[in-house]
Amino acid sequence: MPRNIDYDRGEWRYVDNHDWCAGFWPGILWYLYEGTQDRKWSSAADRFTRQLVPPGKQTGLDHDVGFVLFNSYGNGYRLTGRSAYKKVILQAADSLATLFNPKVGTILSWPPMVKKMGWPHNTIIDNMINLELLFWAAKHGGNRSLCHIAVKHAETTMQNHFRPDYSAYHVVVYDTVSGRKIKGVTHQGYADSSMWARGQSWAIYGFTMCYRETHKSEFLSFAQKVADIYLKRLPTDRIPYWDFNDPAIPNAPRDASAAAVTASALLELSGFVHNKVKAVYYRKQAIAMLAELSSARYQSRDINSAFLLHSTGHHPAGTEIDASIIYADYYYLEALLRLQKSEKKKRNL
Ligand code: GLY
User: What pTM was computed for the model?
Assistant: First the structure.
Protein backbone atom coordinates (compact mmCIF):
# COMPACT_ATOMS: atom_id res chain seq x y z
CA MET A 1 0.00 0.00 0.00
CA PRO A 2 1.28 3.54 -0.70
CA ARG A 3 2.37 5.33 2.49
CA ASN A 4 4.48 8.40 1.70
CA ILE A 5 6.51 10.36 -0.80
CA ASP A 6 9.50 12.00 0.82
CA TYR A 7 10.10 15.61 -0.13
CA ASP A 8 13.14 14.66 -2.21
CA ARG A 9 11.45 11.73 -4.01
CA GLY A 10 8.83 11.68 -6.73
CA GLU A 11 7.48 8.20 -6.05
CA TRP A 12 5.41 6.56 -3.35
CA ARG A 13 7.11 4.40 -0.77
CA TYR A 14 5.03 1.26 -0.36
CA VAL A 15 4.47 -0.72 2.83
CA ASP A 16 3.09 -4.18 3.43
CA ASN A 17 -0.44 -4.74 4.60
CA HIS A 18 0.55 -5.02 8.29
CA ASP A 19 1.55 -1.35 8.40
CA TRP A 20 -0.59 1.03 10.49
CA CYS A 21 -1.13 3.13 7.33
CA ALA A 22 -2.30 0.22 5.16
CA GLY A 23 -6.01 1.09 5.42
CA PHE A 24 -5.77 4.66 4.18
CA TRP A 25 -5.30 3.83 0.51
CA PRO A 26 -8.39 1.59 0.33
CA GLY A 27 -10.18 4.29 2.35
CA ILE A 28 -9.25 6.94 -0.21
CA LEU A 29 -10.56 4.73 -2.99
CA TRP A 30 -13.87 4.30 -1.12
CA TYR A 31 -14.12 8.08 -0.69
CA LEU A 32 -13.46 8.57 -4.41
CA TYR A 33 -16.29 6.16 -5.11
CA GLU A 34 -18.54 8.02 -2.69
CA GLY A 35 -17.72 11.34 -4.33
CA THR A 36 -18.07 10.19 -7.94
CA GLN A 37 -20.29 7.08 -7.84
CA ASP A 38 -17.95 5.70 -10.50
CA ARG A 39 -17.67 1.92 -10.12
CA LYS A 40 -14.06 1.88 -11.21
CA TRP A 41 -13.26 3.28 -7.73
CA SER A 42 -15.40 0.77 -5.82
CA SER A 43 -13.87 -2.18 -7.61
CA ALA A 44 -10.35 -0.89 -6.92
CA ALA A 45 -11.36 -0.15 -3.32
CA ASP A 46 -12.72 -3.66 -2.89
CA ARG A 47 -9.56 -5.21 -4.34
CA PHE A 48 -7.26 -3.30 -1.99
CA THR A 49 -9.56 -3.72 1.02
CA ARG A 50 -9.51 -7.49 0.65
CA GLN A 51 -5.72 -7.46 0.57
CA LEU A 52 -5.61 -6.32 4.18
CA VAL A 53 -4.87 -8.89 6.83
CA PRO A 54 -8.04 -9.79 8.76
CA PRO A 55 -8.06 -9.89 12.56
CA GLY A 56 -6.83 -13.15 13.97
CA LYS A 57 -4.34 -13.56 11.14
CA GLN A 58 -2.43 -10.44 12.18
CA THR A 59 0.78 -10.52 14.12
CA GLY A 60 1.24 -7.90 16.80
CA LEU A 61 -2.20 -6.50 17.53
CA ASP A 62 -2.32 -2.86 18.67
CA HIS A 63 -4.85 0.00 18.55
CA ASP A 64 -4.00 0.66 14.88
CA VAL A 65 -6.31 -2.22 13.95
CA GLY A 66 -8.96 0.52 13.86
CA PHE A 67 -7.07 2.74 11.43
CA VAL A 68 -6.32 -0.23 9.20
CA LEU A 69 -9.64 -2.06 9.13
CA PHE A 70 -12.24 0.62 9.79
CA ASN A 71 -11.09 3.11 7.13
CA SER A 72 -11.11 0.28 4.60
CA TYR A 73 -13.77 -2.28 5.52
CA GLY A 74 -15.76 0.31 7.48
CA ASN A 75 -16.13 2.68 4.55
CA GLY A 76 -16.68 -0.30 2.27
CA TYR A 77 -19.57 -1.55 4.39
CA ARG A 78 -21.06 1.92 4.73
CA LEU A 79 -21.14 2.32 0.95
CA THR A 80 -22.01 -1.21 -0.18
CA GLY A 81 -23.58 -3.03 2.78
CA ARG A 82 -21.57 -6.19 1.95
CA SER A 83 -21.94 -8.65 4.82
CA ALA A 84 -18.42 -10.08 4.33
CA TYR A 85 -17.04 -6.66 5.23
CA LYS A 86 -19.21 -6.44 8.32
CA LYS A 87 -17.84 -9.73 9.64
CA VAL A 88 -14.28 -8.43 9.46
CA ILE A 89 -15.16 -5.17 11.22
CA LEU A 90 -16.90 -7.02 14.07
CA GLN A 91 -13.87 -9.30 14.48
CA ALA A 92 -11.59 -6.26 14.44
CA ALA A 93 -13.60 -4.63 17.23
CA ASP A 94 -13.41 -7.77 19.37
CA SER A 95 -9.64 -7.85 18.83
CA LEU A 96 -9.27 -4.20 19.83
CA ALA A 97 -11.34 -4.79 22.97
CA THR A 98 -8.88 -7.44 24.19
CA LEU A 99 -6.41 -4.59 24.79
CA PHE A 100 -8.74 -2.87 27.28
CA ASN A 101 -7.59 -2.87 30.89
CA PRO A 102 -10.63 -2.30 33.16
CA LYS A 103 -8.44 -1.33 36.10
CA VAL A 104 -6.98 1.58 34.11
CA GLY A 105 -10.07 2.26 32.04
CA THR A 106 -8.25 2.53 28.70
CA ILE A 107 -6.97 0.44 25.84
CA LEU A 108 -3.31 -0.52 25.80
CA SER A 109 -2.36 1.28 22.59
CA TRP A 110 1.12 -0.06 21.98
CA PRO A 111 1.83 -3.50 23.49
CA PRO A 112 5.44 -3.55 22.17
CA MET A 113 6.23 -0.36 24.12
CA VAL A 114 5.57 -2.17 27.41
CA LYS A 115 8.96 -3.81 27.12
CA LYS A 116 10.73 -1.46 24.73
CA MET A 117 10.05 1.74 26.69
CA GLY A 118 9.17 0.30 30.10
CA TRP A 119 5.64 1.76 29.78
CA PRO A 120 3.52 -0.87 31.56
CA HIS A 121 0.12 0.30 30.31
CA ASN A 122 0.42 3.02 27.69
CA THR A 123 -2.37 4.91 25.97
CA ILE A 124 -1.75 7.33 23.13
CA ILE A 125 -4.04 10.16 22.13
CA ASP A 126 -4.27 8.72 18.60
CA ASN A 127 -6.21 5.81 20.12
CA MET A 128 -9.27 8.09 20.43
CA ILE A 129 -9.89 7.67 16.70
CA ASN A 130 -10.16 3.91 16.94
CA LEU A 131 -12.99 4.03 19.47
CA GLU A 132 -15.23 4.56 16.44
CA LEU A 133 -14.71 0.91 15.53
CA LEU A 134 -16.05 -0.12 18.97
CA PHE A 135 -19.07 2.20 18.80
CA TRP A 136 -19.87 0.92 15.33
CA ALA A 137 -19.60 -2.74 16.31
CA ALA A 138 -21.81 -2.26 19.37
CA LYS A 139 -24.50 -0.80 17.09
CA HIS A 140 -24.17 -3.44 14.38
CA GLY A 141 -24.57 -6.73 16.20
CA GLY A 142 -21.41 -6.76 18.31
CA ASN A 143 -21.35 -6.97 22.08
CA ARG A 144 -22.82 -3.94 23.90
CA SER A 145 -19.77 -3.94 26.18
CA LEU A 146 -17.77 -2.56 23.23
CA CYS A 147 -19.65 0.71 23.63
CA HIS A 148 -18.94 0.80 27.38
CA ILE A 149 -15.25 0.23 26.70
CA ALA A 150 -15.18 3.11 24.23
CA VAL A 151 -16.98 5.46 26.63
CA LYS A 152 -14.75 4.49 29.55
CA HIS A 153 -11.61 4.96 27.43
CA ALA A 154 -12.75 8.43 26.37
CA GLU A 155 -13.68 9.43 29.94
CA THR A 156 -10.36 8.23 31.36
CA THR A 157 -8.50 10.00 28.56
CA MET A 158 -10.43 13.19 29.24
CA GLN A 159 -9.28 13.01 32.87
CA ASN A 160 -5.63 12.10 32.43
CA HIS A 161 -4.41 13.02 28.98
CA PHE A 162 -4.61 16.82 29.11
CA ARG A 163 -2.80 19.69 30.74
CA PRO A 164 -4.75 22.53 32.38
CA ASP A 165 -4.77 24.44 29.04
CA TYR A 166 -6.34 21.37 27.29
CA SER A 167 -3.25 20.56 25.22
CA ALA A 168 -2.73 16.81 24.98
CA TYR A 169 0.12 14.58 26.02
CA HIS A 170 0.99 12.13 23.31
CA VAL A 171 1.33 9.15 25.65
CA VAL A 172 0.04 8.54 29.15
CA VAL A 173 1.66 5.72 31.09
CA TYR A 174 -0.41 3.92 33.71
CA ASP A 175 0.30 1.35 36.37
CA THR A 176 -1.22 -1.86 35.07
CA VAL A 177 -2.18 -3.19 38.49
CA SER A 178 -3.41 -0.13 40.40
CA GLY A 179 -4.63 1.70 37.29
CA ARG A 180 -2.91 4.87 38.53
CA LYS A 181 -1.49 7.41 36.07
CA ILE A 182 2.31 7.39 36.24
CA LYS A 183 3.22 10.13 33.77
CA GLY A 184 2.47 11.94 30.52
CA VAL A 185 5.23 11.75 27.93
CA THR A 186 5.80 12.12 24.23
CA HIS A 187 6.92 9.78 21.49
CA GLN A 188 6.36 11.73 18.28
CA GLY A 189 6.26 15.27 19.67
CA TYR A 190 8.99 17.78 20.50
CA ALA A 191 8.90 17.31 24.28
CA ASP A 192 6.84 15.68 27.01
CA SER A 193 5.33 19.09 27.77
CA SER A 194 4.73 20.20 24.17
CA MET A 195 1.59 20.21 22.00
CA TRP A 196 2.27 17.78 19.16
CA ALA A 197 0.07 19.02 16.32
CA ARG A 198 -1.37 15.75 15.04
CA GLY A 199 -1.95 14.51 18.58
CA GLN A 200 -4.13 17.54 19.26
CA SER A 201 -5.94 16.93 15.97
CA TRP A 202 -6.66 13.33 16.97
CA ALA A 203 -8.13 14.70 20.21
CA ILE A 204 -10.40 17.19 18.41
CA TYR A 205 -11.57 14.53 15.98
CA GLY A 206 -11.90 11.83 18.64
CA PHE A 207 -14.01 13.74 21.14
CA THR A 208 -16.24 15.10 18.37
CA MET A 209 -16.82 11.53 17.17
CA CYS A 210 -17.51 10.38 20.76
CA TYR A 211 -20.22 13.04 21.02
CA ARG A 212 -21.72 11.91 17.69
CA GLU A 213 -21.84 8.33 18.94
CA THR A 214 -23.07 8.95 22.51
CA HIS A 215 -24.69 12.42 22.68
CA LYS A 216 -22.95 12.89 26.02
CA SER A 217 -22.62 16.63 26.49
CA GLU A 218 -19.28 16.33 28.32
CA PHE A 219 -17.69 15.07 25.09
CA LEU A 220 -19.10 18.00 23.14
CA SER A 221 -17.79 20.60 25.55
CA PHE A 222 -14.44 18.82 25.77
CA ALA A 223 -14.09 18.68 21.97
CA GLN A 224 -14.53 22.45 21.93
CA LYS A 225 -11.90 23.00 24.61
CA VAL A 226 -9.29 20.92 22.82
CA ALA A 227 -10.20 22.63 19.52
CA ASP A 228 -10.02 26.12 21.00
CA ILE A 229 -6.45 25.86 22.27
CA TYR A 230 -5.37 24.45 18.89
CA LEU A 231 -7.10 27.27 16.97
CA LYS A 232 -5.76 29.93 19.32
CA ARG A 233 -2.16 28.83 18.79
CA LEU A 234 -2.26 28.34 15.01
CA PRO A 235 -0.08 30.42 12.69
CA THR A 236 -1.96 32.84 10.40
CA ASP A 237 -2.27 30.41 7.47
CA ARG A 238 -3.92 27.89 9.87
CA ILE A 239 -1.57 25.02 8.99
CA PRO A 240 0.25 24.03 12.17
CA TYR A 241 3.94 23.51 12.59
CA TRP A 242 4.49 19.84 13.37
CA ASP A 243 4.69 20.69 17.08
CA PHE A 244 3.38 23.97 18.50
CA ASN A 245 6.37 24.22 20.85
CA ASP A 246 9.26 23.52 18.49
CA PRO A 247 11.73 26.36 19.19
CA ALA A 248 12.73 26.29 15.50
CA ILE A 249 9.36 27.93 14.59
CA PRO A 250 8.98 29.71 12.11
CA ASN A 251 11.59 27.53 10.43
CA ALA A 252 10.12 24.25 11.61
CA PRO A 253 8.29 21.90 9.21
CA ARG A 254 4.51 22.05 8.96
CA ASP A 255 2.06 19.21 9.32
CA ALA A 256 -0.61 19.34 6.64
CA SER A 257 -1.97 16.04 7.92
CA ALA A 258 -2.91 17.65 11.25
CA ALA A 259 -4.65 20.44 9.32
CA ALA A 260 -6.62 17.90 7.27
CA VAL A 261 -7.68 15.89 10.35
CA THR A 262 -8.70 19.09 12.14
CA ALA A 263 -10.61 20.52 9.17
CA SER A 264 -12.63 17.33 8.92
CA ALA A 265 -13.28 17.29 12.67
CA LEU A 266 -14.29 20.97 12.83
CA LEU A 267 -16.81 20.52 10.03
CA GLU A 268 -18.48 17.82 12.09
CA LEU A 269 -18.13 19.76 15.35
CA SER A 270 -19.72 22.86 13.85
CA GLY A 271 -22.84 20.80 13.14
CA PHE A 272 -23.15 19.81 16.83
CA VAL A 273 -22.37 23.06 18.64
CA HIS A 274 -25.52 24.77 19.92
CA ASN A 275 -24.03 28.25 20.10
CA LYS A 276 -24.56 29.62 16.56
CA VAL A 277 -21.63 32.04 16.69
CA LYS A 278 -19.27 29.30 17.72
CA ALA A 279 -20.67 26.85 15.15
CA VAL A 280 -20.08 29.37 12.37
CA TYR A 281 -16.59 30.08 13.72
CA TYR A 282 -15.59 26.38 13.57
CA ARG A 283 -17.00 26.01 10.09
CA LYS A 284 -15.20 29.10 8.82
CA GLN A 285 -11.94 27.91 10.35
CA ALA A 286 -12.34 24.51 8.67
CA ILE A 287 -13.10 26.09 5.30
CA ALA A 288 -10.09 28.40 5.61
CA MET A 289 -7.87 25.38 6.40
CA LEU A 290 -9.19 23.54 3.35
CA ALA A 291 -8.68 26.62 1.16
CA GLU A 292 -5.06 26.86 2.29
CA LEU A 293 -4.49 23.12 1.80
CA SER A 294 -6.02 23.48 -1.67
CA SER A 295 -3.64 26.27 -2.67
CA ALA A 296 -0.43 25.81 -4.64
CA ARG A 297 1.43 26.03 -1.33
CA TYR A 298 0.06 22.68 -0.12
CA GLN A 299 -1.52 20.79 -3.03
CA SER A 300 0.94 18.48 -4.75
CA ARG A 301 -0.30 19.25 -8.29
CA ASP A 302 2.56 18.50 -10.74
CA ILE A 303 5.08 17.77 -8.01
CA ASN A 304 3.90 14.25 -7.24
CA SER A 305 0.79 12.06 -7.36
CA ALA A 306 -0.30 12.59 -3.74
CA PHE A 307 -2.96 15.23 -3.02
CA LEU A 308 -0.94 17.17 -0.45
CA LEU A 309 2.62 18.19 0.38
CA HIS A 310 4.20 19.20 3.72
CA SER A 311 3.17 16.67 6.32
CA THR A 312 5.33 15.46 9.16
CA GLY A 313 5.10 11.86 10.34
CA HIS A 314 7.73 11.20 13.02
CA HIS A 315 10.01 14.17 13.48
CA PRO A 316 12.00 12.84 16.48
CA ALA A 317 12.83 9.70 14.48
CA GLY A 318 13.77 11.84 11.46
CA THR A 319 11.21 10.13 9.23
CA GLU A 320 8.52 11.57 6.97
CA ILE A 321 9.52 15.18 7.50
CA ASP A 322 7.92 17.63 5.06
CA ALA A 323 6.55 14.69 3.09
CA SER A 324 3.37 13.69 1.31
CA ILE A 325 1.71 11.16 3.62
CA ILE A 326 -1.26 8.97 2.80
CA TYR A 327 -3.32 9.86 5.89
CA ALA A 328 -3.12 13.57 5.06
CA ASP A 329 -4.74 12.74 1.72
CA TYR A 330 -7.36 10.52 3.40
CA TYR A 331 -8.55 13.18 5.85
CA TYR A 332 -8.32 15.94 3.23
CA LEU A 333 -10.65 13.99 0.97
CA GLU A 334 -12.92 13.16 3.91
CA ALA A 335 -13.11 16.85 4.85
CA LEU A 336 -13.89 17.88 1.26
CA LEU A 337 -16.69 15.32 1.11
CA ARG A 338 -18.07 16.49 4.45
CA LEU A 339 -18.01 20.07 3.20
CA GLN A 340 -19.71 19.10 -0.05
CA LYS A 341 -22.41 17.15 1.82
CA SER A 342 -23.10 19.97 4.25
CA GLU A 343 -23.27 22.54 1.42
CA LYS A 344 -25.77 20.33 -0.43
CA LYS A 345 -27.83 19.94 2.74
CA LYS A 346 -27.87 23.69 3.30
CA ARG A 347 -29.00 24.33 -0.29
CA ASN A 348 -31.86 21.81 0.01
CA LEU A 349 -33.19 23.34 3.22
N1 GLY B 1 -1.03 7.39 14.73
C2 GLY B 1 0.29 7.69 14.41
C3 GLY B 1 0.51 9.08 13.99
O4 GLY B 1 -0.36 9.93 14.07
O5 GLY B 1 1.61 9.35 13.55
Answer: 0.98
